[in-house]
Amino acid sequence: MRWQRLLLWRFSRPFSQQASTTDYLTVHDNAVARYAKKEPRKNTINQLIQFGKHINEQKLIQSARFVHQELPVRLAHRIIDLRSLPYYVVCGPIKRIYDVYVEAFESVRNFRKIQDSADEKEFTVLLKHLVDESANVVELLAHGLRLALLKASEREHLDLDSFVDQMLMSRIGRRMIAEQHVMLHESRPGFVGVINTNCSPRECLDIAYQECSRICFRQYGVTVPVQIRGSVSTIPYIPYHLHYILLELLKNAMRAVVEKHFFRSRTQKDLLLSKDSLPCIEVLLTQGPKQVTIRISDQGGGIPLDILPNVFRYGFSTVNRLREEQQQQEGGGEWDLLVQRQSVDGPMAGLGFGLPLSKLYAQYFGGSLQLVSMDGYGTDVYVHLDRTGDVLEGVEI
Ligand code: ADP
Ligand code: K
Ligand code: MG
């Protein structure tokens, strides 16, 4: 039975339609094995800035050559990882990710040697295409994980967290090197590729707050005020990494505050009262010689002790649980109506990737993320970011 499944798994790979012979698979397998033996070449933010500062044709060709060699190495490790998963995990959405990776691996690997500007331009088009193709990998992973965990409950204890950690850490890196090359073509003031040489945590916070307020208002019909204290200097950083972290943390904080202080009030009168008296989310910005720290404190009631060990697990969310609890209670009134508006895949919460993925983004360039819950009162999250730009990129390739 097992070998039949393995055969099915092997022969259902893409390209098997184009060359449905074992020859193709052997060539492909050998290539994956060969690339997976190579070590990745990591960079620091400062090295990337240094390289891309005064960009010219020759440097673009050099950059393209780097990506041309580096992407298949990083992809090969993940392809091997995906193959080591149990068969029932790799069907459905995770199989689609596997196909995307194999296709990316083959198309980059088979791209001709980059010798001149024409090659470089064509390669850049391919990179843009690959970045677009992989845009929904996180959603696929979340979906695949849910299905796998459902199936696994009947079979065995399945812990995919470190696998997902590696997948996503590697993805952050691959995206970064691909987009860095693509964006080196565009000159934006203050930017070298995707890196903002003077990225302002305060500005990122303002932007994330505005976006979060919009999402929160759409979801609950109310937003939570934020009070910001302290100031920090700018850092060389990739703004979308910081944006992801701040948006996810603010969403979590706002959701907790709204659910504790707003929806728990039962009557219309209470609702109107509590709308204006929601406790602020407090953000503190500080810096030391090597790090910038952002602390986000909310008074959303903290995290119950039985839930706390799970919050950094991929796919873990209390969104469903709340809905179930609510359905058990009679006459939820306004609360019922508003909870119904909250879709599981909605942007406010529910995917269960916010905390663990924010932590990965923080760690990618040498930072960290810690959560401290004060049960019954609120939650503090500390984000530490390197401000030197001298830390090598992520631990996983
Ligand atoms: P999601 O927000 O999609 O549920 P996250 O990974 O962002 O996934 O968070 C996981 C869970 O941790 C949340 O569902 C919530 O129960 C809990 N949590 C996270 N941040 C807070 C917070 N600031 N206050 C209370 N609970 C929180
Ligand atoms: K989670
Ligand atoms: Mg969240």
TrEMBL record:
Stored SUPFAM superfamilies: alpha-ketoacid dehydrogenase kinase, N-terminal domain (SSF69012), ATPase domain of HSP90 chaperone/DNA topoisomerase II/histidine kinase (SSF55874)
UniProt-listed Gene3D superfamilies: Alpha-ketoacid/pyruvate dehydrogenase kinase, N-terminal domain (1.20.140.20), Histidine kinase-like ATPase, C-terminal domain (3.30.565.10)
Pfam family, one: BCDHK_Adom3
Compartment annotation: Mitochondrion matrix
Cross-referenced PROSITE patterns: HIS_KIN
Example GO molecular function: ATP binding
A GO cellular-component term linked to this record: mitochondrial matrix
Domain of life, source organism: Eukaryota
Catalytic activity, EC: 2.7.11.-
A GO BP entry: regulation of glucose metabolic process
Residue ranges occupied by any Histidine kinase domain in the UniProt entry: 242-389
Entries under InterPro entries matching the protein: AK/P_DHK_N_sf, BCDHK/PDK_N, BCKD/PDK, HATPase_C_sf, HATPase_dom, His_kinase_dom, Sig_transdc_His_kin-like_C
Keywords of this entry: ATP-binding, Kinase, Mitochondrion, Nucleotide-binding, Phosphoprotein, Transferase, Transit peptide
Protein family according to the UniProt entry: Belongs to the PDK/BCKDK protein kinase family.
Protein name from the UniProt record: Protein-serine/threonine kinase
Natural source organism: Galdieria yellowstonensis
